[in-house]
Amino acid sequence: MLIKYVGRPSPWKGKTLYNIACNLKNRGEGRVVIRWSFANRYPEKCFYRLTKVEPDTTDPEFMRGSAWGLRVFRGKVYPKETKIETGNRADWRLIPREEEEEFCKLTEKDVYKRPEPPPREMTLPPLLGALYKQHLENKGESVEGPITVSLRLRRTKERNSATDL
Fold first, then answer.
1. Nearest partner of 30 among 104, 85, 92, judged by Cα
2. In this structure, how many other beta carbons lie within 10 angstroms of the beta carbon of residue 147?
3. What is the DSSP secondary-structure string of 30-87?
4. Contact 20, 88 (CB under 8 A)
5. Is the pLDDT of residue 165 over 60?
6. What is the pLDDT of residues 65-89, one digit of tens each?
7. Considering the entire predicted model, what is its pTM?
8. Per-residue pLDDT tens digits for 126-161
9. Could you give the C-alpha distances from 89 to 30, 51, 61, 77, 147, in angstroms and in order?
10. Which residues of 6-28 are buried (b: 16+ CB within 10 A; e: fewer)?
């Protein structure tokens, strides 16, 4: 019999969190799991240390349930236990017990740093500054030193903000 698949292939490769937890002692309490898509998307570390997992026992494939854990997202450690909302996605990987300690150590490069905000002022390039000084002198105004222009920032639909003069 020929099987024909309809629709897009799933972007997730792996097992669900509940499927992993059901195969572990104490349902994975204290173990470290990662979402593979986060590991590929962010250079900083993202993982959960499981504190409680309750799989839905009526589901034979363990695709549903509830899970809680201590969250580390992009190197930021969240102090409170959080509910894991995406446990049903087949995107989870278990970190082996012998690699957990080394994996959970956070270094400088493992913590997200916000980019510096763009400057609010800038000096004009030399040629443009000379032309602007000449323009001001023709109007009768005198200017000393480099000319600075304040920048007006506006949000655009693109990812970064654009600057205007």
1. 104
2. 15
3. T-EEEEHHHHHH-SS--EEEEEEEEE-TT-TT---EEEEEEEEETTEEEEEEEE-TTT
4. no
5. no
6. 899 999 999 989 999 999 999 988 8
7. 0.67
8. 899 889 889 988 998 888 888 888 888 777 766 554
9. 20, 19, 13, 23, 56
10. eeeeeeeebbbbbbbbbebeebb
Query: How many other C-beta atoms are found inside a 10 Å radius of the C-beta of residue 41?
Result: 10
In tens, the pLDDT along 23-46 reads 889 888 999 999 999 988 998 999
Q: What would the two tokens of residue 133 be?
A: 């000084």
Residue found by looking up tokens 């690699």 in the block: 99
Residue 138 burial by CB count (10 A; 0-12/13-18/19+): exposed, middle or buried?
exposed
**Residue for token digits 């894991």?**
84
Of 41, 35, 96, nearest in space to 71 by CA: 35
In the predicted model, is pLDDT for residue 162 greater than 60?
Answer: no
147 phi, psi to nearest 5 deg: -95, 130
User: Dihedrals φ, ψ of 122, to 5°?
Assistant: -150, 150
Kindly calculate the radius of gyration of the chain based on its CA atoms and give it in whole angstroms: 27
* Maximum Cα–Cα distance across the chain: 90
Place of tokens 């839905």: 56
